[in-house]
User: Which sequence fits this backbone?
């Protein structure tokens, strides 16, 4: 966990552009955006990914989903729509092993999700 990139971002050891924060969640702009809005929502509690959510408090998991919606509102995405994605494991190309939700929007996203 000490070597986790996103834990370092939460701690402020690596700079990030904050979009939203509460007691359980931190949200910041992706360094390599795939859409006009591309925000990462992460729990402050270290959780390895979707396959590790049994380690996480229910309140933390709920806070992540609520934060995704909050980010969409803050970014003005709710009228036209947005997408929430969580990559898990090698086939999904997960590159950071701290649970995160990509919130994507701001233009027409493709139908193809796989
Ligand atoms: P994954 O590929 O694991 O689903 O998503 C990891 C995301 O983290 C990628 O979209 C990548 O661009 C983003 N990312 C990796 N390193 C950094 C960083 O240092 N800062 C920020 N803001 N995003 C990062
Ligand atoms: Zn972590």
Assistant:
């Amino acid at each position: 966990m000490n070597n986790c990139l996103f834990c370092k971002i939460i701690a402020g050891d690596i700079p990030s552009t904050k979009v939203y924060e509460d007691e359980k969640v931190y949200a910041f702009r992706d360094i390599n955006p795939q859409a006009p809005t591309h925000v990462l929502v992460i729990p402050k509690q270290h959780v390895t990914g979707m396959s590790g959510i049994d380690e996480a408090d229910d309140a933390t998991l709920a806070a992540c989903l609520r934060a995704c919606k909050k980010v969409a509102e803050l970014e003005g995405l709710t009228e036209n729509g947005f997408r929430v994605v969580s990559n898990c494991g090698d086939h999904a190309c997960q590159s950071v092993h701290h649970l995160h939700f990509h919130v994507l929007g701001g233009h027409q996203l493709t139908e193809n999700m796989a």
User: Anything to note?
Assistant: The beta strands are 18-21, 25-29, 37-43, 82-85, 101-105. The longest helix spans residues 58-74.
